[in-house]
Design goal:
The protein is α+β, with helices and mostly antiparallel strands. It is 52% helix and 13% strand.
Amino acid sequence: GTNVALYPKFQQFLRTSQVPVLAVWGKNDTIFPPAGAEAFKRDAKNPKVVLLDGGHFLVESHTEEISKLMLDFLAENGI
């Protein structure tokens, strides 16, 4: 519950830092719906938003796919 109070600071950081953002989300997540991932598009510059066919525990059900997305994202951004 305390995270919500920090959202404005986090959003401002994304607006000013130009940090690369990868948001991998479960399109069937009922706890954090896909709109949460799409919201990164308002604050980050050119975020990569990927919605996978899964729920809240996406890392457990799509480990290999997410790993590849992360490695590709890091390479694309020279990190």
